[in-house]
Amino acid sequence: MRHGTLKNKLGCYFCNDIVGPMNSTKDRTLDQQCTVTRPGVSFMAASFLTELFATLVQHEQGNDALPDNAFNDDADELDRNERDSPNNVLGLAPHQIRMFLSRLHFMTPNTQRFSMCTACFPKVLSEYGNSGFEFLLRAFNEPDFLEELTGLKEMQRMVDDMDVLALGDSDNDLSP
Q1: CA-based angle 75:79:85, to the nearest 5?
Q2: What is the extent of the structural domain holding 130?
Q3: Could you tell me the superkingdom of the organism this chain comes from (predicted)?
Q4: Residue 98: what are its φ and ψ, rounded to 5°?
Q5: Do 48 and 56 touch, CB atoms closer than 8 A?
Q6: Is 6 within the bounds of a domain?
Q7: Which residues, listed in sequence order, are joined to residue 62 by a DSSP beta bridge?
C-alpha cells in the first residue's frame, strides 16, 4: 500500500480504520494476523512493495499517479487519459495490493482519505508538528488520545446512541 498525496486524495494505511492504532497481533491466531507478520508471506509482501516502488519511481507523476481504478468525483476526460496512459513502462500503479492465498486471488482496491484518520488527519499532523515528542508520548500512553483528537470517539458515541429500529416480517402487516 502506498500513502496518498494531496493531489491524488488516496488514503494512508490507517484511513481504513475507525479506531485508534492498537496491537493487531495480540490474542489473534496466525491466520488472523496482518500479512506481513505471517511467516513466509512477508517475503511476498516485500516483493510486491519493491515492484510498486519501482513503478512509482519510473512513473512520470511519481507518487501522485492515479491508480488504474481511481475514484474521482469530478473526473473528466483528462483524468481518465492520465490514468489510462501507456507512458508508464512498468505498468499500473495501484494504491494497494491485496492477496488471498486461500483462493490465489489478487485485488487492487483504493481507499479515499478519511477525514478523521488517526495518522494523516490535518489536526494530527499539526499537533505533531507543534508538540513533537510530547505528542508521541500522549499517543503511546493514552489509548483514547488520537480518537478524541480526530473526533472518532464522538462519532463512536453518536453511533452507540442511535436508536436502531428492527423490522420483522410481521411488522409490515397493517391489519390489527
Answers
A1: 150
A2: 122-161
A3: Eukaryota
A4: -120, 135
A5: no
A6: no
A7: none
66: which DSSP letter? P
Residues 98 and 129 in one domain: no
Q: Classify burial at 92, counting beta carbons within 10 Å of its beta carbon; exposed 0-12, middle 13-18, buried 19 or more.
A: middle
Beta strands 105-107; 98-100: pairing state: antiparallel
Residue 12 designated active-site: no
Give the CB-side neighbour count of residue 108, counting CA atoms within 13 A: 13
pLDDT tens series, the chain, 176 aa: 777 787 888 888 888 777 666 666 666 666 566 655 667 777 888 888 898 899 889 888 888 888 876 655 544 444 554 555 555 777 788 888 888 877 888 888 888 888 898 888 889 999 999 999 999 999 999 989 999 999 988 988 887 777 665 555 565 555 55
All cell numbers assigned to 80: 481518465
How many domains does the chain fold into?
2
Contacts of 39 (CB under 8 A, 6+ apart): 30
Q: Which residues contact 152 (CB under 8 A, 6 or more apart)?
A: 18, 19, 20, 116, 118, 146
Q: Given 12, 15, 34, 117, which residue is catalytic?
A: 34
Give phi and psi for 112, each to the nearest 5: -75, 155
- Determine the Cα–Cα distance for residues 37 and 105; give it in Å rounded to an integer: 19
Burial of 129 (0-12, 13-18, 19+ CB in 10 A): exposed
